[in-house]
Amino acid sequence: MFKYIADWLIYSTFNLNPETRLGQSLNFFVYDTIKILLLIILVITVVAFVRSFFPPQKIKKVLSRQKFGLGNFLAACFGAITPFCSCSSIPLFLGFLEAEIPLGIAFSFLITSPLVNEVAFIIMGGTFGWKIAFLYAGSGILLGTLVGTVLGKMKLAQEIKLKIKKPCCADNNDSQKNLSMRVKFALKQGFGMFKNIWWVVLIGVALGALIHGYVPEKVFTQYLNTNSIFSVPLAALIGIPVYAGCSTVVPIAFAAVTKGVPLGTALAFMMSIAGLSLPAAIILKRAISLKLLLIFFTIVGIGIIIIGYFFNLVPV
Q: DSSP readout, 62-108?
């Protein structure tokens, strides 16, 4: 349906040739913008309604009792379904530690929360297909579970610094008491997310549209060589200095794939931006030691590279 709307607006209303670069770029922009923004409102509202039944205090209590990696898995799943930005996932990470939840379980949440979220899942499904979207979410949860388990076995609790100033945008969601309040809360979250990120989506899709219509393939393949075994780790390294939300990066990654960059290489770039960005590292440095930060970055970086190689083998 969205494709027909985009075709009608661009090719009929504005009488643009679909073979021109401008026509292709504008069609890409209109189609992806309508699809992504409408899906964001729907999915975030549904997820927020579900979240209203599980306040953070109950989540912490349940996680602290889990054994044999189950707590890591639950924490990773919790991170996957919570649309937290980096400035709100870190305070909750610290809240887990203050509640004496094991360090590894807290890290499982911290790893998965920025890597897998509803916005990225929606855009991934709408652009790459839902099979790829579920593989993406599953790989992020698996990464959070395994890395959190490894970090929990390394006895690094002494590397935590708890006395820090928490970011102002921490999630202060309170438990809702009845169905009406839950629905209002969910709608507020859905449209609140729309208000907060619609312009980010526009920027991301606009950049993706420009890439789709105007940027030559060699711009990407020159540095992320499709035949090079080093393209995935290079993409992960290039993504670290970049700071952007998944809603901005995924359309750009999709445009890169259409220009010849393998999906796994583009995904490694996207995940390194989300999970290993320098701004997030600066915030974390105030919470954990440099030693733990380097261990965290190294292990997660290796995991992202492995995921990238895996997705390069998956047909799109």
A: HHTT--TTHHHHHHHHHHHHS---HHHHHHHHHHHHHTT--HHHHHH
Residues 300 and 275 sit within 8 Å (Cβ to Cβ): yes
Dihedral over Cα of 187, 193, 199, 205: its sign: negative
Q: Residue length, the chain?
A: 316
Q: Are 271 and 249 contacting, i.e. CB atoms less than 8 angstroms apart?
A: no
pLDDT tens for 176-231 read 468 888 888 888 877 887 887 777 677 767 876 776 677 665 555 566 666 678 88
What is this structure's pTM? 0.65
Q: Check residue 53 and report its DSSP letter.
A: T
Handedness of CA 130, 133, 135, 141 (dihedral sign): negative
Q: Are 193 and 83 in contact (CB under 8 A)?
A: yes
The beta-strand segments (E) located in the chain are: none
Count the neighbouring beta carbons within 10 Å of the beta carbon of residue 189.
Answer: 21
